[in-house]
Design goal:
Blueprint lengths: L3 E2 L2 H21 L5 E7 L3 H17 L2 E7 L5 H13 L5 E4 L9 H7 L11 H9 L7 H12 L8 E5 L6 H10 L3 E5 L6 H5 L4 E4 L17 E4 L3 E2 L5 E2 L4 H4 L5 E2 L6 H21 L3
Parallel strand pairs: 1-11, 2-3, 2-4, 5-6, 5-7, 7-8, 8-11
Antiparallel strand pairs: 9-10
Helix pairs in contact: 1-10, 2-10, 6-7, 6-10
Bound molecules: NADPH dihydro-nicotinamide-adenine-dinucleotide phosphate.
């Protein structure tokens, strides 16, 4: 039997509807959650992500401020902009769209954001608290992945989860969150020997690499839950994941599509963190 498709679009719509109600209630108490996004340069993908974030804020009732600066912005100027937002009480969440121009040090920028406004969950304090399992803002894509698996109705505890990819924004944090959900976790990367023999042991397989269709049916254990994080534009202009969806859906029990899987969850979790930040910073529940 072909796998059931976990629709990130549908799950995201459910969560956004609940967030909209939360925002309405916050507004009745005099608080409008606010998100500031800083976008530097003209990178078309970044521009499109930022447009998507602003639109999603608008639809949910969140105030969104997009600060656009050109590539010539210096690191000091960017840090001053962040300082202003750190002190601005109408802004509860701050996000600097990555990647940054080469002359700006990404770590210095992330470190400058107030941890209690770091709705991307990239500040070392949030990363540390996530690993400890303390209160923090969870990084959006990994958090979205966990929500998708939970919404499939399947238990994570006790399963063997194999995560392919070890980036700071996806692979490492999703591995930690799966561990917190009591999965037994293996992390694969470009130096992993015999990837297939590892992935074929996975009850939950998360592919976060950025290589179109690298995971075929032969990599997947029958009945596995397969989460495809990859977003790759192929020569035809089509967006595809790291997983060969058509082949793998014949083997897996649950699978996420690309587009319409993990992608819509990432922005949704950003909205969730922003609403949470507004509650925490104003002590309004
Ligand atoms: P990175 O390029 O930072 O990391 C890719 C990881 O894949 C690395 O850890 C790398 O290993 C590993 N890798 C590369 N080649 C292989 C291979 N042949 N076998 C096994 N592992 C390999 O990417 P990101 O984590 O930032 O993103 C991954 C994908 O997810 C991309 O397609 C990106 O566009 C997408 N993405 C989607 C999001 C969404 O919202 N849908 C959000 C964020 C990312 P090593 O560390 O050894 O180099």
């Amino acid at each position: 039997m072909p796998a059931q498709v976990i629709s990130g679009k549908e799950v995201a719509a459910d969560i956004r509807a609940a967030l909209k109600e939360d925002v309405t209630q916050l507004k009745q108490q005099g608080v409008t959650p606010g998100l500031a996004v800083i976008l530097i340069g003209e990178d078309p993908a970044s521009q499109s992500y930022v447009r998507g974030k602003a639109k999603a804020c608008e639809e949910t009732g969140i105030y969104s401020r997009v600060i656009r600066r050109d590539e010539s912005l210096t690191q000091d100027e960017l840090l001053s902009e962040i300082e202003r937002l750190n002190a601005d009480s109408s802004i509860h969440g701050i996000l600097v769209q990555l990647p940054l121009p080469k002359h700006i040090n990404e770590k210095a920028v992330i470190d400058a954001i107030r941890p209690d406004k770091d709705v991307d969950g990239f500040h070392p304090i949030n990363v540390g608290n996530m690993i400890i399992g303390d209160e923090c803002y969870l990084p959006c894509t990994p958090h979205g992945i966990i929500e998708l698996i939970k919404r499939s109705g399947q238990n994570i505890a006790g399963k063997h989860a194999v995560v392919i990819g070890r980036s700071n924004i996806v692979g490492k944090p999703v591995s930690m969150l799966l561990l917190q959900e009591n999965a037994t976790v293996s992390i694969a990367h470009s130096r992993t020997a015999d990837l297939g023999s590892l992935t074929r042991q996975a009850d939950i397989l998360v592919a976060a690499v950025g290589r179109p269709h690298m995971i075929g049916a032969e990599h997947v254990k029958p009945g596995a839950i397969v989460i495809d994080v990859g977003v790759n534009r192929i020569a035809s202009g089509k967006l595809v994941g790291d997983v060969d969806f058509e082949a793998v859906k014949e083997v897996a029990s649950y699978i996420t599509p690309v587009p319409g899987g993990v992608g819509p969850m990432t922005i949704t979790m950003l909205l969730k963190n922003t609403v949470e930040a507004a509650k925490r910073l104003t002590a309004v529940q």
